[in-house]
Amino acid sequence: NTAKEINKDGPLIGIYASAYGNVRHWGFWQTAEWYELISKMRKATGATFVFIGAEYDLDLGYLLYQMCLTEGIPAVDAIGKLHIGATVELIRQLDYFFSFPSGLGFLADVVNTPHVMWFPAHLQSMTRMFPVPANLESGQTQHRIFETPEQSYQNFLQVGMKFLEN
């Protein structure tokens, strides 16, 4: 089965939240902030959310997956379940992808999946170094400094939504 077969009624939006240790160390979102973005995205797009990552990332991502199910938001748990090749294929099939800084966000650029990858301020010099220039220019690949869920949502409405409409 392909990722597109998961939900034929709306877009597939990938979430890579990382592990609690990483997000605490770099000061990024915990469950409440991720869930705020996910719930707004669901209302705006009717999406199904696909949670990806390594087994190491299970704690935060799996909790978000469970929160989605509890609240009736369609979700798929692929955390720690796929080898890297299958993970790349899954990312390729997503309609949009939100990523804590990692190689998964860089892979999204390689396979032309529209996405946002956030960076902590101390890594700002790394942003925009590796992506395909045309993807940056079109907004298909966005590297942003850590921001609030509301800022991320507004950015998606202004820039990202056009990729779901195609």
Could you characterize the architecture of this molecule?
- The protein is of the alpha/beta class.
- The chain is 45% helix and 16% strand.
- It is built from seven helices and six strands; from the N terminus they run E-H-H-E-H-E-H-E-H-E-H-E-H.
- It has helices spanning 20-26, 31-45, 58-70, 84-93, 103-110, 133-138, 149-164, and strands at residues 12-16, 48-51, 75-77, 96-99, 115-119, 141-145.
- A six-stranded parallel sheet has the order 3-2-1-4-5-6, with helices on both faces.
- Strand 2, helix 3 (58-70) and strand 3 form a beta-alpha-beta unit.
- Helix 2 (31-45) packs across helix 3 (58-70) and helix 2 packs parallel to helix 7 (149-164).
- The longest helix is centred in the C-terminal third of the chain and has 16 residues, at 149-164.
- The model has no long low-confidence stretch (mean pLDDT 85).
Key descriptive features of the protein:
166 residues, alpha/beta, 6 strands, 16% strand, globular
Give a short summary of the structure.
The protein has 166 residues and is α/β, with parallel strands linked by helices. Helix content is 45%, strand content 16%.
Considering DSSP H and I runs of 4 or more, what fraction of the residues is helical?
Answer: 40-55%
Q: How do the helices and strands follow one another from N- to C-terminus? A: EHHEHEHEHEHEH
Shape: globular
Unreliable residue runs: none
Secondary structure tally, helices: 7
> What radius of gyration results from the CA coordinates?
14 Å
What structural class do helix, strand and pairing data support?
alpha/beta
Strand arrangement, largest sheet?
A: 3-2-1-4-5-6
Calculate the terminal CA-CA distance, rounded to whole Å.
23 Å
Mean pLDDT across all amino acids: 85
Strand tally is: 6
Strand content: 15-25%
Biggest β-sheet description: 6 strands, parallel
